[in-house]
Amino acid sequence: MRVPMTAGNWKMNTTIREATDLVSEMRPLLDQIENIDKVICPPFISLAAVKELIRGSSIKLGAQNVYFEEEGAYTGEISPLMLADLCEFIIIGHSERRQYFNETGELVNKKILAVLRAGLKPILCIGERLEENEAGKTEEILAEQLRLSLAGVDYPRSLIIAYEPVWAIGTGKAANSKQTNETIGFIRCKIAKLYSDEIAQNMRILYGGSINADNIAEFVQQPEIDGALVGGASLKATEFVSIVKQTSQIKGR
Ligand code: PGA
Question: Among 190, 201, 225, 234, which residue has the least CB neighbours within 10 Å?
Answer without folding.
Answer: 201
